[in-house]
Design a protein that fits this description.
The chain has helices at about 20-35, 45-55, 70-80, 95-105, 120-135, 145-160, 175-180, 185-205, 225-240, 250-255, 290-305; strands spanning about 15, 35-40, 60, 90, 110-115, 165-170, 210-215, 220-225, 255-260, 265-270, 275-280, 310-315. The chain has a five-stranded parallel beta sheet, sandwiched between helices. It is built from eleven helices and twelve strands. It is globular, with a radius of gyration of 20 Å. It has two domains: about 15-135, Rossmann fold (3-Layer(aba) Sandwich), CATH 3.40.50; about 145-315, Reverse transcriptase/Diguanylate cyclase domain (Alpha-Beta Plaits), CATH 3.30.70.270. Helix 7 (about 175-180) crosses helix 8 (about 185-205). It is of the alpha/beta class and about 325 residues long. The relative contact order is 0.10.
């Protein structure tokens, strides 16, 4: 691993992930020469450690790596609300459409086929960073506050010492739905969920409610603690009521869709559902934004282990 390259001083922070030391060093040199601050990891596990130490503005990762490959790294980043908004460029030595589609379907922002030339690399990096900056303030898909505004909202609640609850909302089986029906229908699901959640929050919490979109199928809700359970219950019931409308008749009757996995073997996935994790000041206080999101995300992971839509709230008292 190399230290940050600081020659240009003010560039965005990039994390390069590649188990080939020659490729990693080449990328580091080219990107640093263009003014970026570069760190290097040699596999996905090390990359996750570096991301948790300091979130980069962009991750550039190879696909084929030992331990944790580029696809799995991207999935892990997207599954955690604290890292879900970090843009990812996939590097692949294979120009296979299946690789490109898988990378994009799991949340990668772009891909580059090796060998690459420097002008193309830099152009793609600039493009992804530009789009990411636009999304941090406002999600282009839903028009809701993006990553930066979400963090600011939660940090303001923490610093004020007031009572609040944070709900992390995630759609189950969404990647399979996208693969089966295409991104356009997937985007429609996201927009409808945003619209439904806005109405629920306005009715229940009024001006005390906040809804943000981290990107993909990840949303964050901030409401008073006493509103959290009602918001979660109502969101689950209204989302479930809308689910049949998104499926073709045959899939709706089956209650599942069939999508090829990475090996090309057919795999069945149930209909869309949502999982909601809730962190509340009812039982504990929080010191910072990351602690709130970590607790809510832990609850979301717990409820995703059950089938169908559900929610879970952290009821543990702080020790």
């Amino acid at each position: 691993m190399s230290d940050d390259t600081t020659g240009m001083g003010s560039g965005e922070r990039l994390l390069v992930v590649d188990d080939d030391p020659f490729i990693a060093r080449l990328l580091e040199i080219e990107l640093a020469a263009s003014g970026y601050l570069v760190r290097v990891a040699n596999d996905g596990e090390q990359a996750m450690t570096l991301v948790q130490e300091e979130a980069p503005d962009l991750v550039i990762t190879d696909v084929m790596m030992p331990h944790v490959d580029g696809f799995e790294l991207t999935r892990r980043l997207r599954e955690d609300p604290r890292t879900a908004g970090i843009p990812v460029i996939i590097l692949t030595a294979r120009g296979l459409s299946a690789d490109k589609l898988e990378g994009l379907s799991i949340g990668a922002d772009d891909y580059i086929v090796k060998p690459f030339d420097t002008p193309e690399l830099l152009a793609r990096v600039r493009g992804v960073l530009r789009r990411s900056k636009e999304m941090r303030d406002e999600s282009p898909l839903t028009g809701l506050p993006g990553n930066v505004r979400v963090q600011e909202e939660i940090e303001s609640k923490v610093s004020s010492g007031g009572a609040f609850a944070v709900l992390v909302v995630d759609i189950d089986h969404f990647r399979a739905f996208n693969d089966h029906y295409g991104f356009a229908r997937g985007d429609d699901v996201i927009r409808q969920l945003a619209h439904t959640a806005e109405g629920i929050i306005a009715d229940i919490a009024g001006d005390d409610g906040f809804l943000g979109h981290l990107g993909g199928d990840d949303f964050v809700v901030v409401v008073p603690p006493e509103a959290a359970a009602v918001v979660a219950d109502t969101l689950v019931s209204r989302f479930d009521a809308s689910v049949p409308d998104w499926y073709d008749q045959a899939d709706r009757e089956h209650g599942w869709i069939e999508v090829p996995n990475r090996k090309g073997d057919p795999q069945r996935f149930g209909l869309l559902s949502i999982s909601i994790g809730v962190a509340s000041t009812d039982r504990r206080t929080f010191a910072h934004f990351a602690e709130v999101v970590a607790v809510a995300n832990e609850m979301k992971t717990y409820t995703k282990a059950t089938s169908g839509s559900s929610w879970a709230i952290d009821r543990r008292a702080a020790t």
